[in-house]
Amino acid sequence: MTTIEHPAPPPPSGPVPWDKDFAQALLADMLRIRRLEEKAAELYGEGRIRGFLHLYIGEEAVAVGALHALRAEDNVVATYREHGHALVRGMSMAAIMAEMYGKREGCARGRGGSMHLFDASTRLYGGNAIVGGGLPVATGLALAAQLRKEDRVTACFFGDGAVAEGAFHESLNLAALWKLPVLFCCENNLYGMGTAVERAEAQTDLAAKARSYNMPALSCDGMDVVAVYQATQEALALVGQGPVFVEYRTYRYRAHSMFDAELYRQKAEVEEWKTRGPIHTFTARLKAEGKLTEAEFLALDARVAAEVAAAVAFAEAGTWEPVEDLLKDVHTP
Amino acid sequence: MTRKLSYREAMREAMHEALQNDPRVFLMGEDVGRYGGTYAFSKGFLEEFGPARIRDTPLSELAFVGAGIGAALGGLRPIVEVMTVNFSLLALDQIVNTAALYRHMSGGQFSVPLVIRMATGAGRQVAAQHSHSLEGWYAHIPGIKVLAPATIEDARGMLAPALADPDPVVIFEHAGLFNLEGEVPDRCTVDIVRAKVRRDGTAVAIITYGGSLPKALAAAEMLAAEGIAAEVVDLRVLRPLDTAAIVASVAKCRRAVIVDEGWRSGSLAAEVSARIMENAFFELDAPVARVCSEEVPIPYARHLEEAALPQPEKIVAAVKGLFS
Ligand SMILES: Cc1ncc(C[n+]2csc(CCOP(=O)(O)OP(=O)(O)O)c2C)c(N)n1
Ligand SMILES: [Mg+2]
Question: What is the CATH number of the domain that holds B149?
Answer without folding.
Answer: 3.40.50.970
